[in-house]
Amino acid sequence: MKTFAERLELTRQGGTVKRSHTNFIHQPENNAEHTYNMLNIILILHPNPSVDLIKAASWHDVPERFTGDIPSPAKRLFPKLKEASLEAEKRIAKQFNFDVVLSDDELNWLKAADKLEYMMHCAEEIARGNAMARVRMDRVKEDILTNNATPPQIREFAENYRHNPSNEIIL
Question: pTM surpassing 0.90?
Fold first, then answer.
């Protein structure tokens, strides 16, 4: 078991990992920003999120402090790479006591919120003039909408989401 100081340092360092580093991005996002946005997706869309789901969302990318953010296309092209990275992340999470046991429903929420956050990030990139983000956004949106395990709240939001590029929230 690692100390509280080691665990807290790892969460801070894990938050600095740059996401989507192999894609052209106007405004890069790190794991801390991604996790904050993902937590808010869960807290706003889930009718009653468990503490375990909140913990899992908070800590799901912490092992990337050691592994880095391995791009999804690489994992799709090289299944053994995906398998090895998942095993490494599980071992790191266990070593630092960040492994959380989730029900199937909670795991579906975690995965769908992760994808929805990326979809929303891609929409922001498109609004910044990054036309290349359209393909990634369409791909992840299609995955959200066609995956039978996607919670209905996330599916409905993804289906109806339209980014407001003005950044003006009207009261």
Answer: yes
